[in-house]
Specification:
Elements: E1 4-8, H1 18-24, E2 30-36, H2 38-41, H3 50-69, E3 75-78, H4 81-92, E4 96-101, H5 105-115, E5 120-125, H6 145-154, H7 195-206, H8 213-216, H9 229-233, H10 239-251, H11 260-280, H12 302-310, H13 316-328, H14 333-346, H15 351-361, H16 367-378, H17 393-400, H18 405-410, H19 430-435, H20 451-469
Parallel strand pairs: 1-2, 1-4, 2-3, 4-5
């Protein structure tokens, strides 16, 4: 039989993989293919962050091991996808190329080019519901989360029986099909790559921590979130399997009042909302969704931006989050909101600077979620936080890290500062600074802005834009 190519993109898994299931239908050889696309991995696109590349390559190594355990193997080729697919189809006589759908602008252009060279069939999607399917009655897309969520929940939701099991055996890949070696993936770090780890984390979260999610999800000092975002980014676990786990956890409450599973499900819907926004409005990757705020008078300050990136702003909760990002490529979602508010409101720096830095450093950097989160916090996007919502870094620190545990973990220079002053160490007297072994301006920076003054500056800038629009 003529082989079928299973083109792996953001579905680095065997469980619940509709594209793989479709490729196996014919009963002939299946060639699992990953294309090292220079447009994604060569430094010219959002996917170019080195840390994310390492995570992806480690996940692909794990996938290759799983394939070999089932009698198959991963084939790796480098080049423009359309050219690689055309050459492989010619080499093998492949009858079809099957791939999971991806709604990002680049993926859609890439797939259109591939269709001109090979018979490409798209099966499934990176989301539970395709963005084109969750629209208003008149066919126009939603731009506000709540009605989107209502429509999303109104569609058929996946059940446990819908989650596809990984195949026990796979057809052997002909030995004549050559493959490149995967690059060394580097160190594993805090997020071991691969489907097995992703599914283990999902099971562990759904067995208990999900119940506390509603009450503890904003505590940056607690391990109260699923920490699954890097795995969602590359499809090491499917969105459908995650939704099934959330629904099962919610159904198992047995009269308990905790709403953790419901709130976590809502966060999964937020992910789908941002995918839909990018699908229907691809211009958001370069400009604010809200046109009036495209004229906002941002400041250009190399010094302030550098201080923010390096975690040297003088505000502990901000600096701890940015140093965590530098160390492990991840931070808590509440911390992301805090640092984004500080950059865009306290420093009045263009949100696109922060969006780009996150894409450069985040292990889970995803164009849709990252862009949506930044525009929301900056108050310039669809369904955004009101522009006058400005997080106080001191109050946020006290609420989200009341004992200073998180701050002291990432800012050891503040380890001896009294808990009552940990989020505003500049208020220590000189003698208190000496006792805490933390001299402000030497061991830890003084605040680079005064929050209340900076807040008024930001509100004035936003009001000016509002006034121009009326």
């Amino acid at each position: 039989m003529r082989p079928t190519v299973w083109w792996i993109r953001r579905d680095v898994r065997l469980h619940d993989n509709p594209a793989l299931a479709r490729a196996l239908v014919g009963g002939g050889p299946v060639v699992p293919l990953f294309v090292r696309d220079p447009a994604l991995l060569g430094g010219r696109h959002h996917g170019a962050a080195a840390r994310r590349r390492d995570f992806l390559f480690a996940g692909l190594r794990a996938l290759d091991a799983d394939l070999r355990a089932r009698g198959a193997r991963l084939v790796v080729r480098s080049g423009a996808p359309a050219a690689v697919l055309e050459a492989l189809a010619r080499e093998t006589g492949a009858q079809a190329v099957i791939a999971e759908g991806d709604a990002s602008p680049y993926a859609r252009r890439r797939d259109a080019a591939a269709r001109r060279t090979v018979p490409l069939e798209i099966v499934g999607s990176t989301s539970v519901h395709h963005p084109a399917d969750v629209v208003k009655a008149d066919g126009t897309p939603y731009t506000v989360f709540t009605p989107f969520k209502r429509a999303w929940l109104g569609r058929p939701l996946p059940r446990a029986a819908d989650v596809l099991a990984a195949p026990d055996r796979l057809p052997a890949v002909p030995r004549t099909i050559a493959s490149e070696e995967l690059p060394d993936a580097g160190t594993v770090g805090a997020f071991p790559a691969g489907e097995a780890e992703a599914r283990r984390r999902l099971r562990a979260f759904a067995r208990g921590p999900i119940d506390r999610y509603a009450s503890e999800r904003d505590r940056v000092d607690h391990d109260a979130t699923s920490a699954l975002s890097p795995y969602f980014r590359f499809g090491m676990v499917s969105a459908r399997e995650a939704v099934v786990a959330a629904l099962a956890a919610g159904a198992a409450r047995n009269g308990r009042t905790d709403r953790g599973a419901d709130v976590w499900l809502s966060e999964l819907v937020w992910r789908e909302f941002y995918l839909a926004i990018l699908f229907h409005h691809p211009h958001v990757l370069g400009s604010a969704f809200n046109e009036r705020f495209r004229r906002l008078g941002y400041r250009r300050s190399v010094r302030d931006l550098a201080a923010w990136k390096s975690g040297r702003t003088g505000y502990p909760i901000v600096d701890a989050a940015m140093r965590q990002l530098a160390a492990i490529g991840w931070m808590h979602n509440r911390a992301r909101m805090i640092v984004a508010s500080f950059l865009t409101k306290d420093l009045l720096v263009d949100w696109r600077e922060g969006e780009a830095w996150f894409m450069e450093t985040l292990l889970d950097g995803d164009p849709a979620a990252n862009n949506g989160g930044w525009q929301w916090t900056a108050g310039v996007g669809t369904d955004a936080a009101p522009y006058f919502r400005v997080f106080s870094p001191v109050l946020q620190g006290k609420r989200c890290d009341p004992d200073g545990t998180y701050v002291c973990r990432w800012l050891p220079e503040l380890a001896h500062v009294p808990v009552a002053r940990i989020h505003e160490p500049w208020t220590l007297t000189p003698l208190e600074q000496q006792a805490a072994a933390c001299i402000i301006g030497r061991d830890y920076p003084a605040p680079i802005v005064e929050h209340h003054t900076a807040r008024e500056r930001a509100l004035a800038a936003y009001r000016d834009v509002q006034a121009e629009a009326t």
